Amino acid sequence: MTFDTLDPVDFAGPYLEAAFALARGAKRLVLDLRGNGGGDPGTLALIAEYLLGDDAQALSEVIYRDRRRQWWTRARPAGSAMTQDLAVLVSSHTYSSAEALAYHLQARGRAVIVGETTRGAADHVTPVQLTGQVVGLLPEGTVIDAVTGSNWEGSGVIPDIACTAKEAWEVALARSVCDRSPTTGR
User: Fold this and answer.
1) Are 169 and 32 in contact (CB under 8 A)?
2) Over the stretch 87-116, which tens digit does the pLDDT of each residue have?
3) 55 vs 1, 88, 90, 97, CA distance in Å?
4) Contact 73/49 with Cβ under 8 angstroms?
5) Beta carbons within 8 Å of 154's beta carbon, 6+ residues apart
6) Start-to-end CA span in the chain (Å)
7) Each residue's pLDDT tens digit, 28-70
8) pTM for this prediction
9) Which H or E run contains 8?
10) Torsion of Cα atoms, 144 then 17 then 158 then 155, to 10°
């Protein structure tokens, strides 16, 4: 499955439901996030819900100066979550909420991440136009993964199997996604 963006969950939800229904009989899954620039954290949580099991799980907490926001998956009917082996393809063009999805799946041991280190944009920012040509990014919230207690800000999501973005699809299909050797990420 290729996700080039994470559209708002109200729009994306029915399409995700159909895509995962079609994938139910597959022997393994490959999520391609190599060109995904991010999007709605609600859509990220919905995708994770299909992939992380039937029980509700905490994904992350975003800490702002004046508030906190938690992101969770919802509980699913017993036996309805996808359980196939999972590879997630990433690149230097994987950004923001797409990085979060890869990071959360990797941190929970649910996916093997294949490709290039991502850009490292975890924290929430507000763009501020400083001049006609210069935009500043004002940090406003820090994302903390519920499992690791940290995030990928500045370092990116480091693949378990490093290769070029162009090679990632072939590498993921050629290897058993359960085989993490040799690893570079974890």
Assistant:
1) yes
2) 999 999 999 999 999 999 999 999 999 999
3) 23, 22, 26, 22
4) yes
5) 120
6) 24
7) 999 999 999 999 999 999 999 999 999 999 999 999 999 999 9
8) 0.89
9) none
10) -40
